[in-house]
Design brief:
95 residues; 55% helix; 11% strand
């Protein structure tokens, strides 16, 4: 979708580039231990972001294969996603 096609009434969404969940996963991997809430907030606050129309965000998430976590509730959402990632990593060795 280009800006020329977008509906001016369409809501804009904040999008982290790269995805906030990817930034947090990388930071945790580099740390070698779970991130603290303060570390998660510092990473969120320092991350690059832009705004996109909601329809463009849907296309981005479809191409990415996942939705990013919500910046407003990033600590709680990171905890849930982190558990999923750990479970998937644990399952990868079972095949």
């Amino acid at each position: 979708m280009t800006a020329a096609n977008s509906d001016p009434a369409e809501p804009l969404c904040v999008v982290f580039i790269p995805a906030l969940v990817a930034l947090l996963a990388r930071a945790e991997a580099l740390k070698g231990d779970a991130l603290t809430e303060q570390e998660v907030l510092v990473i969120r606050d320092a991350a690059h972001c832009m705004t996109l129309p909601a329809s463009a965000l849907a296309v981005l998430e479809e191409s990415r294969g996942y939705a990013d976590i919500d910046a407003g509730d990033c600590w709680a959402e990171w905890q849930a996603v982190r558990e999923q990632i750990m479970a998937e990593d644990g399952d990868s060795g079972a095949a």
